[in-house]
Amino acid sequence: MENTGILVTIIISIVLLTLFLAGIVFVIRSVRRNRRTGVMDEMEGHEFEYFCADLLENQGFTDVEVTRGSGDFGVDILAEKDGVTYAVQCKRYHGTVGVDAVLRTYAGRDYYGCMVGAVMTNQYFTAPAVEAAEKLHILLWDRGYVDDVMV
Prior knowledge:
Number of helices: 5
Structural class: alpha/beta
Largest sheet: 5 strands, mixed
Strand content: 15-25%
Mean pLDDT: 87
Order of helices and strands: HHEEEHEHEH
């Protein structure tokens, strides 16, 4: 009977230690993510485009190319993943991203002959932007998405 009590104590100790270590890992990841996210908010536009291009490469995108600054027809990055071509517009804003970004990405996707259009931002999207993106089949990669792929 005494051995059963010791075994239960050991199991409980292992479970508590595992939960404690998982909590530490969660806190460390959160701090790192917040530190990098804060840096993202301080970037200028073109710097943010290269930052997004690096994130896409880390997610397995290939042939990632940042387009020229002006006259890019609303597309900042061209990329490919699993045989699918992407036209991505990057928006480093202080407020929400509106429908104009979605419309420009829609046009840029077709201009560059890409299969998928996406808007990537350090912020979030307005309701009209979300509605337009759904109708025009444009992906919206908001701050939550960017935070997730930064880990």
